[in-house]
Every structure is written in C-alpha cells, then in structure tokens.
Structure to design on (361 residues):
C-alpha cells in the first residue's frame, strides 16, 4: 500500500532539501524505535543504553508516540531551530491548537490512554510533558547528535550532487529506491501500516528531511504548515549507527591526528571540501593542484581526524565537511572581537490551519 504524492510544476520548483535532521522529528522517531526490535544491528546498542537513562515519566511520551500508529503534531517542529527554541515554541502553542490537534490524534488511534484527554485542560500536565520531552532529548538524542550531523553532512553532499546532475526529479528518484518511487509526476511512498491515499501538494512543494531513526518507510505529513514534509533515510552501512563507544569518542575532543592539519596542502584540501561539498577525490586534486594520490591521502587524514566525512555514490567517494571541520575553519577565520558561530533560524510557530495529524509509520 502506498501514498501517492502528486506534484505540479510549482511543487517541483518549491521542493526543498532540509539542511539536516530535525531534532524533534528525530526524537519522536527515536521514541518509536525504542519500542520495537527492528534493525537490531543498527539500533540495539543504542536501545540498551537509552533504556537505562529513561525515567518513569518517559512512559507518557511513549504512549504519545507508539511504535506503530500516529503521533500528535503538537510535539514536533521541523523548522531550522535549536532543540531549545523548538521546545519553547511547543510550550507557547495556543490552547485551541493543542485541543484540536490531540482530538484529531485520538480519533485516529485504536486505543488512547485516558490521561491524554486531560492535556488540553491541565496546563501543568502539558508543561510537564514538554519538560520530559527536553529531558529525554538530552538523554537519548543530544549525546549522539555530533555523529548524526556528521552522517547528515555526508549524505547531503550526495543529495546535492543528485540535484545538480539530474534535477529535482533525479533527487526524488534516488532518495530511497526501496520505499520511495518516482513515476512523474507522482512520488509513491510505501506505508508501513498498509495505508494508502492521494496527497496533493497544491503548489506548496515538499520539504525533504533526512532521518537516522527512520531507516526504511518514510514519515509523511501532508497537512504541515507552511509546507508538507517527508523523511528519507540516512544510511550508515551495516554498522551500529549509535553505539555509546563511538559517541564517547566523538565527544571526547579533537583527535590527536588533527596535528596533521598544520601543513599548508592539507589546510587547502580542507578549505576546498568546505567550498565544494560533495566533490570527488579527482575534483579535489584539481582544485588544490595536487596529484590524485596526494589528494586521497590528505582527505583520508582529515576523515580520520573527524573533520570531513565521505559518502559513496556508486564507486565514487564524495567528500563533505563535518561540524567539527566547519568549527575549525570558522575559528581560524573569525574576526577579532567576534565569537564564531551560526545564527539559528526563526523560532518555529505551531500556528496555522488546524488539521488532523498525519504522521505515518
């Protein structure tokens, strides 16, 4: 069974690739992943670690995000904001929106815990849920976020190359060939729950969001404002995606191999990757004026240091910068007296037309 997402010329023109995973979407999908046993190689080590960190209060969040079924829209924001800003936007949701959203969610569920009916009428209960959401994010998502961002940077390089070489239709057809199939002008998304239907974007386009915690079937929100969105999978091969050991290493500081970057050529290679994300080793050699073998050697050192990442497209290696590499370059080019960094996007607002929730498993 599939959802058929219909595109017009305006939809093709307005379809966007998100800059990275959404923290709150990933949290909702992580809560689902905690409750099933799928993808054991990818998630079991993370599940064991996460379950030891969750307190009894997290049970209510699991009720709102069942392993199979629907989730309320109210606790999920896809805007480019920090987790803190996104959570503050959730706190500020109008009471009417909260009531309508949870009522729509309840109508779509087979069984709804009785306590959920009190959420719109008890502000303390709602604020307590947001507090728990923040605590759970800090325990089961935040420690792994550097690694998730690294994967997303590498994946984005591949997707941008698809877009540059083949256009939006080429990007759509390569997002997830097993579960997303492009038959112009329709994108077919297979449903994990056996649902089907037609989704018309009405000229709004589609926001494409990478997700580590949704490695197979996409999640679709056709009624999201201001733009419908769909997740596609980030892949990390057949290795454990979120092992505590790998995360500890990623957070322990700059590796000793970073000293290898003090040479001029290696710094040029790093800058070239920053300026041309998704470049091949051959293109890297041309842009830095070194032999391909030398470019490959320098890129390997940078990758080992955690400053760059590589994604594979067929037999070609595509190089992208990691957040650590970007921070290093930002720090080295910072204007005296200013703190390097980035300005977060506008605070998301859950307002807009109130519609039934539409997250699919």
């Amino acid at each position: 069974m599939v959802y058929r997402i219909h595109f017009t010329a305006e939809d093709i023109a307005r379809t966007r690739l998100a800059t990275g995973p959404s923290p709150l979407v990933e949290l909702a999908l992580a809560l689902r992943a905690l409750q099933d046993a799928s993808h054991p190689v990818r998630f079991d080590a993370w599940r064991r670690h996460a379950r030891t960190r969750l307190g009894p209060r997290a049970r209510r969040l699991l009720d709102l995000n069942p392993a199979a079924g629907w989730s309320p829209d109210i606790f999920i924001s896809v805007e480019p904001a920090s987790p803190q800003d996104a959570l503050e936007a959730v706190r500020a949701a109008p009471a009417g929106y909260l009531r309508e959203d949870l009522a729509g969610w309840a109508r779509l569920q087979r069984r709804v815990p009785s306590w959920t009916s009190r959420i719109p009428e008890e502000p303390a209960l709602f604020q307590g849920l947001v507090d728990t959401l923040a605590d759970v994010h800090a325990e089961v998502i935040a420690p792994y976020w550097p690694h998730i961002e690294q994967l997303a940077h590498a994946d984005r390089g591949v997707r941008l190359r698809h877009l540059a070489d083949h256009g939006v239709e080429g990007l759509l057809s390569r997002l997830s060939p097993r579960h997303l199939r492009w038959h112009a002008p329709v994108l077919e998304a297979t449903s994990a729950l056996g649902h089907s239907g037609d989704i018309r974007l009405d000229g709004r386009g589609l926001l494409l969001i990478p997700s580590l915690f949704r490695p197979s079937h996409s999640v679709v929100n056709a009624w999201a404002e201001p733009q419908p969105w769909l997740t596609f999978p980030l892949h990390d091969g057949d290795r454990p995606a979120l092992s505590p050991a790998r995360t500890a290493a990623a957070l322990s500081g700059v590796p000793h191999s970073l000293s290898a970057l003090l040479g001029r050529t290696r710094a040029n290679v790093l800058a070239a990757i920053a300026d041309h994300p998704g470049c091949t080793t051959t293109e890297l050699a041309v842009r830095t004026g070194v032999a391909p073998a030398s470019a490959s050697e320098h890129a390997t050192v940078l990758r080992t240091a955690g400053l760059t990442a590589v994604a594979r497209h067929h037999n070609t290696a595509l190089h992208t910068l990691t957040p650590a590499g970007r921070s290093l370059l930002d720090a080295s080019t910072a204007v005296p007296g200013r703190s390097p960094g980035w300005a977060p996007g506008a605070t998301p607002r859950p307002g807009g037309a109130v519609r039934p929730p539409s997250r699919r498993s």
